Structures are given as structure tokens and as C-alpha cells.
Amino acid sequence: MDGNEAKMAGKCPVMHGSITARSSSVTSWWPEALNFDILHQHDTKTNPLAKGFNYREELKKLDVEALKKDLHALMTDSQDWWPADWGHYGGLMVRMAWHAAGSYRMSDGRGGGGTGNQRFAPLNSWPDNVSLDKARRLLWPIKKKYGNKISWADLMILAGNIAYESMGLKTFGFAFGREDIWHPENDINWGSETEWLAKQRYESDDETSLHKTLAAVQMGLIYVNPEGVNGKPDPMKTAQAVRVTFERMAMNDEETAALTAGGHTVGKAHGNGDASTIGPDPEAVGVEAQGFGWANQSGKGFGRDTVTSGIEGAWTTHPTKFDMGYFDMLLDHEWELTKSPAGAWQWKPVEIAEEDMPVDVEDPSIRTMPMMTDADMAMKVDPTYRKIIEKFRADPEYFRDTFARAWFKLTHRDMGPKVRYIGPDVPQEDLIWQDPIPAGPTGYDVKAVKAKIAASGLSIAEMVSTAWDSARTYRGSDMRGGANGARIRLAPQKDWEGNEPARLAKVLSVLEPIAKEAGASLADVIVLAGNVGIEQAAKAAGVSIEVPFAPGRGDASAEQTDAKSFEPLEPIHDGYRNWLKGKFDTRPMELLIDRSQLMGLTAPEMTVLVGGMRVLGTNHGGTQHGVFTDRPGTLTNDFFVHLVDMSNRWEKKGDGSYAVIDRKTGKEKFTATEVDLTFGSNSILRAYSEVYAQDDSKEKFVKDFVAAWTKVMNADRFDLAA
After folding, report:
1. 504, 496 Cβ separation under 8 angstroms
2. Can the peptide bond before residue 396 be classed as cis, meaning omega within 30 degrees of 0?
3. Does 94 score more than 70 pLDDT?
4. If exposure means fewest CB atoms within 10 Å of the residue's CB, which of 66, 345, 618, 670 is most exposed?
5. What is the mean pLDDT of the segment spanning 548-557?
6. 264 a catalytic residue
7. How many CB atoms lie within 10 A of CB 540?
């Protein structure tokens, strides 16, 4: 031990890996190392609740009416330590719920309010979420009272609902069922920027060139910059940015206009002070702050002295009432650019009668100037948005209904199908964005169907590939996709390149008559066919096994399918079938890890599925890369045996693929992709591969493959989990 080491050793007897020793982490030494953490990020060891805790069961004990009564009271009570504007917390609670739900994006289904992730970094410290830490602390007495019968995720969204109801809106409904996570979601790519509000996510100056996986226009924002694109006011450019980002969050123009108007009908923005004096965010404050961030040094720090966004003022004359005042204010006045006391760009009316001005948040005898953001002005100057808001103004009931539905969609979009909704206020109406699926039959003869499939002449690869393609679209992020519904037979899925349309059409033409004759759903029969193929392949390997199966899937119709919203679910890569659609900046193995996480798979499950899919011959287009076996169609552990066999060596070929060479003869035995070889080159994956390559693992391999396969096939069977 040298002097420096001795000095360090004498200082403290414990390792500081969680805080100060990041330089010794694997990724610090080897930045390109694969990170499998996202596959196990919500391990049960992070959950403080008892083993076997079932939130859905706890919800049955919840006194919903008492909870709602307490939330209604909260809106005008608890004014001691964080006084509300006009004595009403409605605007603050709406903003908290909105910003929790508004982080959702369709590209990968991640974000949203379904996990209570706003409690953790980075969301709890985003610039756009200034002072929402106060909103969550205001809810704490209620969370404490009802305990585990209500999750933080449900409570935060419900608080927004009750806030609107307390200000006069009849909401469309509410569903419980969001379960909390217990540490940050490390799987979400919020952007590559290394500083807040930087703009590095555009391919060009065109506002439509926002990186396809992202939705917010800048790091740390939920939607767009309220001052204008890059902080420069230009309502027409802002309109385009608004359109792009809301579309990526699953909203059309009418829903976008309704949300903008309805969101800004209540509450106010805060910028009445020097923004440079605001203290550190919740993740950066000292322990004495107890997680309270953004200490406000402007006067009292609250009320008329509050600084959050930097923009200052209310949008309407009566900011604690859900009325039509937003349209009157925006459309009946001409607006000019100005700056807030905090120095932020905003718009003010050129002329306004005193009685149309909102009163001061503390003193009702004082009138204050209303304002509009650049995003509000976009609603006025963009022809499409202008037409929509004029329609809303002319028909208040239509606006209220449209907004209520859009708010419900915003706050429930990431919850998945309606079967997951719980509670007395769940709307009866089926909505297209909920991906409705009719209940499927269960009384048919499963054994007879399997026998007909086995005698159909379909190959193992055809049956397994079709079942896999039907199920692999599932995303645990927003519970969309999956085999249930048999949407693989409908547009757009039937035409996706990754589904090999010609092969798919052939298989469906065989399975559809079988399903019809048996009185089974095609969704069930597609999965059954995959199971039949696996059972046949396992038997050929000397292992007799029955793949678990639960009937009851339904067949969705084209009318029940929002085809456009399914476009983001299209696979453009599938490491399980050794396929990439074009070239990517991201390494193929990282794409596979990301897809596996969305499907809810662990690293061992990912490993065994890849090995099994290879020997079953399910590669896209029938390529032979990674098919390390002389017995394709037989469910053996040959992939792993040959992968770790030291009698082989590997060489990179000119086309980017690899060859396995017999060391003795020098002859090429197999070919492979980078994904295949990673299971032998990465130390973690090699450890798993060696387990399955062992002589005593042949039966274990089959059993583990079947278990992982069944998990994928049943991922969207929420009826089985209920």
C-alpha cells in the first residue's frame, strides 16, 4: 500500500461507491460496456412493502368517497406553510398531475404518471417541475392517513382530478390501479443533453426534426418552452413545436387545443422576482432542506413573490373557476410582447378593462395584468388551432366535454387497457385509444385445436415465428401491444416488414379456418400454434413438455384499432429473430436489451429465449446467422454449446457478419451476427450461456425456455393477473 492508499484507508473504513467512487465503476473504466441494470431495475429488494403485497387487493379496502372529500378540503385548507394563490391549491395540483402524466411519449410508451416517478430524479428536479415538491408534501397527510390503500401514483393524478372538480369541471372519470416504483426509472432516455434546457435533439432548424424517440422540445421541459422556440417568441414556430410534441404524446390538434385552453383556464404562472436567486433543486439541496428545492429568496418566497417558470400572471379573470374566460381573454384582446419581472418573455393585452383583470393572489382589492405565453398565442395565430378554439368558444358544452375527455386520456394513456382500471368512477364507454379487445371464448376443445394445428403442415419455424411476432409488440411501459386481439392480422401490423407479410399471410390462411371451426379466437390459435411448434421441437430433443396455455384471448376488429397509434409499435429490430431494419447508431445488443426491458424480461430470460429461437430456425428471412446446430427445429442447447466451444475460433467477415471456424480443419462451420457473439464475449452473458451449455442443462434449458416463452405470450393477459 502506498502513502496515498494508506491515507485514504485511514480516513474511513467503508466504501463510498454509491457517491464518491464512480470513477471505479465498470462503465467509467469501459464506457462501451453493456449495462443490464434496466432489466432488473425494479427488483423486489427495492420495494419496502411486504412480500406478496397486492395493490389491487388493497384498493378494495379504500374508502374512495372519504379520500375524495379529504382532497376537496385540501384545495382550500392547509394554508399555513405554503399559502396558495387566492387561497386555492387547484392550479398547483393540476400542474403536478399534468406534469406527472405529460411526460408520456408514444415512441416507447415510457414516462407518464403510472408509476409515481415524479418523486424521483430527474423528474423531481426538472426546471419545468419547480415547486411541485411542495404539492407532493401537501398531499403527505392524506397519503399518511390512507397508507398503502392508495399509491402515490394514483394520489397525484386523483389530486388533479379533484382540483378540476373543485373549480367547476365535471370530469370524465377516474381509474385507480397505478402502482408505485421505489427508485428512478433508469431505462428512460430523456435526451443526451448534459445541461438543462439545452437543445441538442433536433436534426435541423425545422421544428419537425425533433429526435424521433423524444417528445419534449428541450431537456427538463414537459412540452415546449413557454417563452417560444429556444426562448425566442414566435407564435407560428411555437405552434409547430406544440403540434409535434403533443402528437408524440398521443394527442391530435383538437385534443391539444382543448388541453392548452383547459389547462390555462385555471391557476397562474409565477415570475414575480429575480429568478437568479432561486436555490438548488431537490436533488442538490443539503440534508437540512429535507428534499425541498428551489428556495425562493424573492420577498416572502410565496404568494405574489413566487418565482417558478419566470413568467408572471394568470390567463383568465377568474383563475380558480373552470369557465370560458380563456377564450374571451385570448380572442377579445390584441397582445404585445413584454417581459416578466423575472425577465421572461410573455404577452400582455394592449388594452384591457380593469374589471377583466384578475385580482392579486393575496389582496382582492388589487387588480393585476393577465398574460399569455407564446404557446397560447400559437392557438390564436395558427389557422388550425384558431378554428378549433373558436369552435370551443361558440359551444361551451362541447369544449367542456372535449377537455374532460382529453384530460382523462392524458392522465390514463399509460395505464393500458380498460381491464386494468379499478374504482367506482371508471367510465363505461370504450375509447379507441384504450385498444379495446372483446372477451374471447374459453369453452372450445384445446386439445382438438392443437391436433389440427399439428396436422396442418405448418413448419415449426412458421408457427413459432408467427406467435412470437404477434406477442413481441407488448410494451410494459404503457401495457400496449401483445398477442391478445390478434391485431397482427390487421393494418398496419399485417404489412410490417418485421412480420414477413408473405409468411404471415400463409400461416394465417391455415390457422383462421381452424379457429373458426373450433369456435376459438384467432389470437388464441396463433399462440397455440407457437406452443405446438415448441412442444414438437422439445420432443425431438428428447424432452417431453407441455407449454402452459390459458384460453380467452379475443379478436379485435379494425374499428377497434387506431391504426395510426400502432405505428410506433412497429419493430425495426428484433435480436430474438436476428434482424435489423437498416442501420442504427445504437449497437444491436443495446437495442435487444431495450426491447427485452419493454417486454418485462430479465437477462437470463433474454439469454435462454435467444438461444432457443436460434435453434428453432426463426430468424427473419430464414437467415442462418446464429443457427449453431446441425438439427434446426429441435429445441436443443446447441447454440450455447457451440458458442462457448473452445475448439472453435471466430473471424469477422467483410459483410460485417462473423464466421465460426473449426480450429483443426480451418473450415467455416457457422455464421453469426454481433448479437450472437455478444452472448459469448460479454462476461455476464457468457456466464449465463455457460450454464445452458453444460451437459446437465439440456432439460433445464427447455424448461427455462418454455417459462420465458409463456411469460411473453401472456404478458398482455391482464385478466390472468387480476
Report:
1. no
2. no
3. yes
4. 66
5. 98
6. no
7. 14
pTM of the complete model: 0.95
Among 260, 307, 324, which Cα is nearest to 131's? Answer: 307
Q: How many CB atoms are located within 10 Å of the residue 424 CB?
A: 11
706 in Cβ contact with 538 (< 8 Å): yes
pLDDT at 382 over 60: yes
Residue pair 39/596 in contact (Cβ under 8 Å)? The answer is yes
Closest CA to 214 of 244, 186, 183, 185: 244
Q: Name the burial class of residue 495, with classes exposed (0-12), middle (13-18) and buried (19+) by CB atoms within 10 angstroms of its CB.
A: exposed
Dihedral of CA atoms 19, 25, 28, 31 in degrees, nearest 10, equals -130
- Count the Cβ atoms, other than its own, within 10 Å of residue 138: 21
What is the arithmetic mean of pLDDT over 705-720? 97
Specify which residues 268 forms β-bridges with: 314
- Report how far residue 276's alpha carbon sits from residue 112's, in angstroms, rounded to the nearest whole number: 30
Could you tell me if 118 and 134 are in contact, meaning their C-beta atoms sit under 8 angstroms apart? no
H-run or E-run covering 671: strand 668-672
Judge residue 659's burial from the number of C-beta atoms within 10 Å of its C-beta, 0-12 exposed, 13-18 middle, 19 or more buried. Answer: middle
Tell me the C-alpha to C-alpha distance, in Å, between residue 279 and each of 292, 302, 339, 590.
10, 14, 22, 38
The model's pLDDT over 566-584, given as tens digits with 9 standing for 90+, comes to: 999 999 999 999 999 988 8
- The helix (H) or strand (E) run that includes residue 91 is helix 90-101
Pairwise CA distance, residues 357 & 365, whole Å: 12
Q: Are 225 and 207 in contact (CB under 8 A)?
A: no
pLDDT at 9 (0 to 100): 44
Q: What is the pLDDT of residues 510-531, one digit of tens each?
A: 999 999 999 999 999 999 999 9
What confidence category does residue 26 fall into, taking pLDDT thresholds of 50, 70 and 90? confident
- Residue 410 burial by CB count (10 A; 0-12/13-18/19+): exposed, middle or buried? buried
Cα(109)–Cα(187) distance, rounded to whole angstroms? Answer: 12
How far apart CA 55 and CA 78 sit, in angstroms, is: 29
**How many C-beta atoms surround the C-beta of residue 324 within 10 A?**
16
Q: Which of 99, 333, 412, 625 is catalytic?
A: 99
- The set of cell numbers assigned to 290 is 429535507
Residue 555: pLDDT band by 50, 70, 90 thresholds? very high
Q: Beta strands 268-269 and 648-652: pairing type? A: unpaired
- Per-residue pLDDT, averaged over 361-388, amounts to 98
148 alpha carbon, distance to own chain's centre: 24
Q: 671: which strand partners?
A: 659
C-alpha cell recorded at residue 585:
447508431
Q: Is the peptide bond before 358 cis (omega within 30 degrees of 0)?
A: no
Neighbours of 50 (CB within 10 A): 8
Assess contact for 55 and 179: CB atoms under 8 A: yes
Q: Map 148-189 to HEC letters.
A: HHCCHHHHHHHHHHHHHHHCCCCCCCCCECCCCCCCCCCCCC
What's the rounded Cα separation, in Å, for the pair 177 and 704? 31
- Residue 651 pairs in a beta bridge with 659
> Which segments of 547-625 are extended strands (E)?
573-574, 579-580
Query: What count of other Cβ atoms lies within 10 Å of the Cβ of residue 248?
Result: 20
Residue pLDDT, tens place only, 394-428: 999 999 999 999 999 999 999 999 999 999 999 99
User: What is the spatial distance between Cα 419 and Cα 421, in angstroms, rounded to a whole number?
Assistant: 6
Q: What is the CA radius of gyration of the chain?
A: 28
